[in-house]
Write a structure and sequence with these properties.
It is built from no helices and 7 strands. The strands form 2 sheets. It has a 4-stranded parallel beta sheet with strand order 1-2-4-6, with no helix packed on it. A 3-stranded parallel beta sheet has the order 3-5-7, with no helix packed on it. The mean pLDDT is 93.
Length: 92
């Protein structure tokens, strides 16, 4: 699955926590997991997704601080994390 470039799991009522091993998908460009019931926090290894351009996680139950590592995603064009429970400012 290292060559995977897109994951679209939107609108599936998926529960559980944000995957801690997401950083292993180094070629991932699109991650769409919106409109589910994913909870917990975003793991810091999100910063390992250097190819990520689109990240849709809106309308879940994700909470806590946004990891500073999101700032490492230099190719990121779209980030939608609306309708979650974050309580931090955007990392630099």
């Amino acid at each position: 699955m290292v060559n995977l470039t897109s994951i679209d799991l939107q609108n599936n009522q998926i529960g559980g926590t944000f995957p801690t091993n997401i950083g292993q998908l180094s070629n991932l460009k699109n991650l769409s997991i919106q409109n589910n019931q994913i909870s917990g926090t975003i793991t810091p290894n999100i910063g390992m997704l250097k190819s990520l351009t689109h990240f849709y996680i809106q309308n879940n139950l994700i909470s806590g601080l946004l990891p500073q590592e999101i700032g490492l995603l230099s190719k990121l064009q779209i980030l939608d994390f609306s309708y979650n429970q974050f309580y931090s400012t955007l990392p630099g």
